[in-house]
Amino acid sequence: MVEHYKTPIILFSFFIIIAISMFYLTNEIFLIFNFLYIGFFVSSGVYLFANGNKYGRSFVQWGVGLYLLVYLGLILQENMLISGFFFYLFLGVFQAAVIHYLVAKIIGPLLFGRGWCGYACWIIMILDLFPYKVPKTHERVANLGLLRYLLFLLIFIFVVLLFYFKVPDLHYTMFLVFVFGNLIYYIVGIALAYKFKDNRAFCKYICPIVTFLKPFSYFSLLRVTVNEETCTDCKHCVNICPMDVDILDNKRSRKHGTECILCLECVKECPNNSINA
After folding, report:
1. pLDDT band at 4 (very low <50, low <70, confident <90, very high)
2. Contact present, 10 and 108 (Cβ < 8 Å)
3. Residues 207-230: what's their mean pLDDT?
4. In the chain, alpha helices (H)
5. Closest by alpha carbon to 193, among 257, 123, 116, 143?
6. 3-state SS, residue 244
7. Exposed end of the chain (fewer CB within 10 Å): N or C?
């Protein structure tokens, strides 16, 4: 059994630093709990999965996903979608979705790329229950991924219009946007999963957060790479990748390189132990 300590330790250290920094900046003791809780599940899940526990990623997906969706979103009524990020940003409030996006989807990807998508997304938490963890084909529908950027723009315009028309009780309105926005995401995500026989089709064609994730993930410190000296070019890692990443190419510009979710399936399945993270 290959033990992978490096990534979990780096991840948990990152969350400790963030927890202390956010408390120092805001004097909100809740943020220490918030980031240590998430950090514990993320780092523990990565460790468990990398060491052969097939439920490792499910552990962190449900631990973090339910916390963000149910506790922060439905109970505390914080809009944790990208619409909530724009909303709080326009209000000038440095909390909730603004902090979440800065840490997980803007600054965080410089360290762990799209690890958020692999371990903590509450949309994928549900979609990964479906049987298409390995896509039927690694070829994508040309230009369909542009929908992600169009949706990003439409959501931005929508939030701007809410402020422009001075919609009353904006906080409650944004809560409703969170509820129905998630319902739409789940419906579309499930439909795409069955259509393309791919649990991650939602990520590849619809998810607007990619607009943030792709440019920052390009410079990610944590990367999956191949040892070219021991690799036999069996392409098993490429075939098993849920995000169609060309694992055999170590360049940052490799095909779909910014979409690696650090799921470590390629590490686990490599017959020669030639893949490192």
Report:
1. low
2. no
3. 91
4. 6-26, 29-50, 56-66, 82-91, 96-101, 109-112, 115-119, 122-127, 147-164, 170-196, 201-205, 210-217, 236-240, 265-269
5. 123
6. coil
7. N
Tokens of 8: 């979990």
Statement: residue 3 has pLDDT above 70: no
> Mean pLDDT score of the chain, rounded to an integer?
90
Q: How far apart are CA 16 and CA 18, in angstroms?
A: 5
Of 93-107, 132-146, 246-260, the one with minimum mean pLDDT is: 93-107
Q: CA-to-CA distance for 32 and 38, rounded, in angstroms?
A: 10
What pLDDT was estimated at residue 165? 94
Cβ contact 222:111 at 8 Å: yes
Closest CA to 34 of 93, 78, 4: 78
pLDDT of the residue at 199: 95
Q: Are 63 and 122 in contact (CB under 8 A)?
A: no
- The CA-based angle 57-62-64, given to 5 degrees, is 95
Residues 6+ apart with CB under 8 A from 208: 82, 148, 149, 151, 152, 155
Which tokens sit at 77?
Answer: 């009524």
C-alpha span between 248 and 264 (Å, rounded): 14
CA 167 to chain centre: 31
The alpha carbon dihedral of 95, 97, 99, 102 has a sign of: negative
9-16 mean pLDDT: 85
Question: Which tokens sit at 3?
Answer: 């033990």
Spatial contact of 259 and 207, defined as CB atoms under 8 Å apart: no
